[in-house]
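[audit] Reproducing an earlier prediction to check determinism. Same input, same settings, fresh worker. If the tokens differ from the archived copy the diff job will pick it up downstream; this log only records the rerun itself.
[audit] input (216 residues):
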Amino acid sequence: MAIVTEISWEDMFAGKALPDSPVRQAWRTAVAEIAEKAKATLPQCNGRVEKAVQIVLNGDVELLPYGKAKVASQSNGSMSYFIVNGTCECKDFAKAPSGWCKHRLAYGLYKRASALVKSRVAHSEPTETPQAILPEAPASVNVRLMLGGREVQITLRDINEQHLLERLEKLLQRFPVEERKVGWCTLHNIQMKENHKNGQTWYSHKLANGKWCQGK
């Protein structure tokens, strides 16, 4: 679960700075400390460690049962996910030293930074509950797109509002708005038949199972 600060579009375009909090500071400090240890241990992977830090701070690591994790990877405005459990499905896993791709590193950073922050909270008098000490993304935006005739909601998260807007612009350029034809079924990508009865007009098309769809 990620703590995401919601801001208005007006504030985003104005470049308004987000208020910081002790939780965010504690989390970033822990991630930075663990990242430095990773660089010292794996100097040949320093570039990958930096990318892993961005993945973690973006809130793109999700823990799964049985010691697995779902780690997001972003390239060219598209989002993909890799399941990490000692191995990774990405192309870099086979090339990375000892298999330490940025996704495996992100998983390791996430776990160790979380443990570090919770340990510090347990030995102090926290002003916020330990459950609140979780990774977060300072800015996020949701956009609904039509993919394969289906409406899909995509969430972009980032630690910088301007970078977030640039990524959003690239994403929207990949999926230009299409003019919807009258009577076009977006569920099945097919033109429906125009029907008239009792002064009413509607569109529908017959499915393979014999039922009728009205594009809803």
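[audit] rerun output stored. Observation attached for the diff report: The chain has five helices and twelve strands.
[audit] end
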